[in-house]
Amino acid sequence: MKAGIIIFPGINRERDMAIALERSLGRKPRMIWHREEDLGGLDLIVIPGGFSYGDYLRCGAMAAHSPVMAAVRAHAARGGYVLGVCNGFQILTEAGMLPGALLRNASLRFLAMDCHLRVERADTVFTHRYQRGQVFRAPLAHGDGNYFADAATLDRLEGEGLVALRYATPQGESTAAANPNGSARNIAGILSPDLRILGLMPHPEDLVDPLLGGEDGRPLFDGLAEARVA
Amino acid sequence: MKAVVTVMLKPGVLDPQGKAIGQALQHLGFDNVGEVRAGKRIELDLTETDPARARAQAEEMARKLLANTVIERFEIAVE
Amino acid sequence: MKAVVTVMLKPGVLDPQGKAIGQALQHLGFDNVGEVRAGKRIELDLTETDPARARAQAEEMARKLLANTVIERFEIAVE
Amino acid sequence: MSTVDAALARSFGLNDEEYARVLAIQGRTPTLTELGIFSVMWSEHCSYKSSRIWLKELPTEAPWVIHGPGENAGVVDIGDGLAAVFKMESHNHPSFIEPYQGAATGVGGILRDVFTMGARPVANLNALRFGDPQHPRTRAVVDGVVRGIGGYGNCVGVPTVGGEVNFHPAFNGNPLVNAMTVGIAPKDRIFLSAAAGVGNPVVYVGSKTGRDGIHGATMASAEFGQDSEEKRPTVQVGDPFTEKLLIEACLELMATDAIVAIQDMGAAGLTSSSVEMAGKGGVGIALDLDAVPQREAGMTAYEMMLSESQERMLIVLRPEREAVARAIFAKWELDFSVIGRLTDTGRIVVRHQGRVEADIALAPLAEQAPLYRRPTAPTPAPPPLGAVADPAGLGAALRRLLACPDLCSRAWIYDQYDATVGGQTVKRPGAADAAVVRIEGHARALALTTDCTPRYCAADAEAGGAQAVAEAWRNLTAVGARPLAITDNLNFGNPEKPAVMGQFAAAIRGMAAACRALDFPVVSGNVSLYNETEGRAILPTPAIGGLGVLDDAAQAVGIALRPGLDLVLLGATAGHLGQSLWLREIAGHEAGPPPPVDLAAERRTGDFVRARILAGAVAACHDVADGGLLVAVAEMALTGDVGARLRAGPDEVPPVAFWFGEDQGRYVLAVADAPALLAAAAAAGVPARLLGTSGGAGLTLPGGETISVTELRQAHARFLPAWMAAGET
Ligand SMILES: Nc1ncnc2c1ncn2[C@@H]1O[C@H](COP(=O)(O)OP(=O)(O)O)[C@@H](O)[C@H]1O
Ligand SMILES: [Mg+2]
What we know:
The complex is a heterotetramer, with one copy of chain A (230 residues), two copies of chain B (79 residues) and one copy of chain D (729 residues). Chain A is α/β, with parallel strands linked by helices. Chain A has six helices and eleven strands. In chain A, β1 (3-7), α1 (14-25) and β2 form a beta-alpha-beta unit. The radius of gyration of chain A is 16 Å and the shape is globular. Chain B has two helices and three strands. Chain B has a three-stranded antiparallel sheet. Chain D is globular, with a radius of gyration of 26 Å. Chain A binds chain D through residues 9-10, 12-13, 15-16, 19-20, 49-51, 53-56, 109-113, 139, 141, 143, 203, 205-206, 209, 211-213, and chain D through 147, 150-151, 154-157, 239-242, 244-245, 332-333, 414-426, 428, 438, 440, 553-554. Magnesium ion binds at residues 433, 475, 623, 625 of chain D.
């Protein structure tokens, strides 16, 4: 699988992501400057975390309107995979490629800590190396991770099985106490209807090395490495 | 001309910032404060001199970038 | 009554947010945009019914909490 | 235009003698801009006029030191062809005026000092001292400072991996915000600031210049008319997004051969950067201010030369590479403007709108800068602490100590700092005595810490200065790192007071002795004086930022206890309670001398501990610091979420003194094979004592009382979130 990482000005987790992808995919991802418009030959496009354009207006808003996003849309329409993590998730929602929006954390503070995620669906290219209901740990680091969508949208996401990951206790219960940021229904990550786009707030790419505290995030990238390309 | 775009959360979208401000005001002893809503004000200097056209431009900017209509509504004033 | 507190950075204080919005608008092709300034709008529901008193209260709230008068200035409108 | 005279000079902070020297150098009345340049270059901040004499006493050399003090940051060789570049800097006053922006721009400033040398910043730390939690303003200062540090560091994508926090009423009107940045560069690609090459272009890059932070004295001058409100010196606002672009653009440019010299615009912005670059290079410089990118209309030469707008750099380029450089900054959408040339005149000449606004010979500006040996007065040694009664017993004292502001969990703070961005953080805040950050693409890792115990320094500045250095060395050692060098941030009161200057000189003496004994030189630092409000000085605070290296990150150990291990104390315990937190929090007074530091024993014990860690014989290690031994053991238990059963201490030391004394140079090690450790320690001449065994869900004290780890955690975790929430809602 050939992966590329899009770099908007202000993105800052591109190196973390490149390390995680290389570890699992066995080759370096292509680093894509946001002015590029040709994403041909790539199977997976990753929009990593950071503060694109400082996130000064709304998180992800300015990047979502960047020319490269047209190419990302085309890539998705062709059946390519897209992974948006943290700012990447915010950009995908701002671009309308995933529903809903990410509001300020309920505590109104930036939060950087580990959280636990329950895998809601294990039959996607992103999650098939986990089991359904499995809980894994991931660092999070965001000020605006409070997932919001109107009730109808939430019901549709649930009904169509598009909630990929939920904040949970280490034992797997999705309680209010396990919800770090106030996200609706403890939602940490969602999928597009064709299951080819995943957006999530936490950073599995920062937990792929035992020396750095564990490999809980690794199955996501190992799973992508095995994916059959359309 | 100057256009002012005011962006507020839609009714029904939780406004934690407004809520926190309300609580902090209560705490400071302002006990006649009811609901508080927090939003953004963006002032734009436009080279346009026609008010109607300035408003139309500001509206397009708001729709395209300044507001996220999934969660926000906006108003335009032209001065 | 409703009081609206508008908080903007004082003139001369760097406004990174306004600057970034201005650049983003330029990138989107809005090339008639000059300076952009970003600020806050806070809407307060007050139980007070006298406009002058409502304004005075909002002003005190702004000075004590809503604005950081080291770098920001504010305006009050009562509706 | 206001008249330039001695009175105006005084309002700019130059005394009459200094102004007379300006007149002699210029041979005429200086222009307003010239006076501004002299006043900032000769300010305490830029000239170190009160401290320079004493700073010379600090050892600055070692075989691994590449650049000591004098450059933007210190540079040490860390192996694998790499260098670590690091420095600490204060933003105390701005952080009191506007906590968020003050702290944020403090982080931005220290980052620039590091990447200006060609290093990619890989870690931030921050050493913070706040006022009494009961003081009405403290909460807002803590809130703003923590948000500001996070707001800037998180956005630029440099992990904030460590620091320290103290509370004391002496900081009520003057908090300390000391920020440290560490970067990594190839050791043969370090960029310096000495300009060279007559005719070479001087380039301004980054953000535009506004009227930010211009010398407050301007306000007093009659120069500004009715619109003075508009031109009022403003608080600097940080723009971390622009800083991030500046980092990437500068590093991209540094990968080419375009740069001759580069310098960030820090305090006194364009003035100090241009004067220092030209001065160090022994050349002249001509600036044309019309070319300076400006944010506001109608700025004067004086304002542009003194502006402290953030996120700006000055670069001398090889002329044939100008286009390459311009293209890089265009890509990153940053301002790029040639604002001058190097000359052979040895002078700085500033032109604006066709007029020469300043023309100063650089050599006398530097060489005749004031230098003072200010009078010092010793602080009387505190009388020895007599017998103290134990009002609480071990268990109750432990619960209260763990809950007190100076010892409680810092998680509320560091949970707002992105500690993992970069994907190299091996030991995050709370996990070890020093943060451990691996170097991308290498097995090697840096160990980083900041340390100082102001209450020790107030009681005895010399002992306190030595203690701060020793504690930094100890914290690096406790993770298994080889300590290499320090940066310091010397925060003191008004140097014109002999008592304050006495503290300063004594602290330096203590630091110097410790640096020498531990082969731990000072490679960079910062002095912050005049930290006073209403005539009352802060506690003397020589904050130390320590850097060490581990050849293999996998060898790093943390403080987390695991079950089934023996706990062994290394280092001697006399039971020193003077200036201890137990004395303050439990017995209710701040008294006595601080614990002495035995530098020879410190070194012997530390070298022994490090060798055991590197031999793989240590599962966890924690130095014994604030709160003493029982607090250290409790912190290990909390971090590992496992209990321990402790044995009684020696008969000759009273239990509270043994368990809460703050004797220096000690470590608690958790090991599988205690007999081997005890035998090795005996052979090495290091005092060692078996403390107990880990396991279970509670901490069992020598008297038999058991406190569950859950209860300890509640005590430890409560203070900061509860205190902050009380202000929020
Ligand atoms: N201001 C801060 N910023 C980031 N981390 C901090 C800060 N203050 C404390 N920490 C971290 O919290 C942990 C505990 O702090 P502290 O009790 O001061 O450590 P120590 O006893 O080793 O000096 C350490 O890992 C330290 O780096
Ligand atoms: Mg320590």
